[in-house]
Amino acid sequence: MALFASAILPRETPAREIGPKSSLCDEIKSLSPGDELVLQPGDYQGGCTVYRGGSPGRPIVIRAQNLQVRPRILYKGESQNALNIRAGHVVIRGLEFGPTRYNVDGIRIYGGSHITVEDCKFSEMGGIAVVANHASVRGVIVRRNIIVNSTATAMYFGCHNGLACTVSDLLVERNYIHGVEAPERAIGYGIQVKLNSTAVLRDNIIIDTKGPGIMVYGAQDRAAVNVVERNFTAGSRTSSGIVIAGGPAVVRNNVAVSNAEAGISLEDYARRRLLKGIAVVHNTVYDNGKGGILVSESNLLDAAIINNAVHARAGTRAFAPDQPGMRLWGNVDCSWIPCFADPASRNFSPLAGSPLFSESESVQEGQLPIDDFFGKRRQVPPTIGAIDDSHGPIAVGIKQ
Question: Which residues contact residue 386 at a Cβ distance below 8 angstroms, ignoring those fewer than 6 apart?
Answer without folding.
Answer: 230, 252, 253, 254, 255, 282, 283, 284, 309, 348, 372, 373
